[in-house]
């Protein structure tokens, strides 16, 4: 069970980090659009659509990664006060009642949308450039599959928490800059005064 959890966490992390690089492309594309629009007075017909597609792709492909790290929003004003075993029981019920049906609907609907879109080579109606969007609709299916795999891992986490009354945390891979600076300062202080 732990092996599958680690596999799903690593898979989600790989995709989340790989697609996070789209933020740089979005920034460059937006900067280019601002330059040509306001400096050269020659706006592009495609920049807005491309930035929407990249942002949507990044957002969708980061969903499983965010789930694996417990980063999704939850109303935990009561939940955080409970024992991990009780939290896991509630999570387990909610995964089967809401998460899996929703993700399955996302995969099935996304498959239909993507297949139809690929059939007629769908392009964006928002710009005269006719930016293709069928590949973006395929991202819906890929994101759903990643969420489904990570959801199974989360169910395994719940089962372990019910058994051990302790949550199995994902491996840390991203840290807040402030936390890193505080840690470095504490280590420097410790080295200065042994």
Question: What this model shows, in words?
Answer:
This protein has helices at residues 2-20, 22-38, 47-61, 63-68, 84-119, 134-164, 177-192. The longest helix has 36 residues, at 84-119. The mean pLDDT is 89. It is mainly alpha-helical. Helix 5 (84-119) packs antiparallel against helix 6 (134-164).
Q: Into which percent range does the helicity of residues fall?
A: over 70%
Multimerization status: single chain
Helix and strand string, N-terminal first?
HHHHHHH
* Biggest β-sheet strands, sense, barrel: none
What is the 3D form?
flat
Query: What is the distance, rounded to the nearest whole angstrom, between the alpha carbons of the first and last residues?
Result: 43 Å
Low-confidence stretches: none
- Judged by helices, strands and strand pairing, the structural class is mainly alpha
Rg estimate, integer Å: 21 Å
Number-wise, the strands total 0
Features:
single chain; 194 residues; mainly alpha; 7 helices; 0% strand
Briefly say what this structure is.
The protein is mainly α.
Secondary structure layout:
Layout: H1 2-20, H2 22-38, H3 47-61, H4 63-68, H5 84-119, H6 134-164, H7 177-192
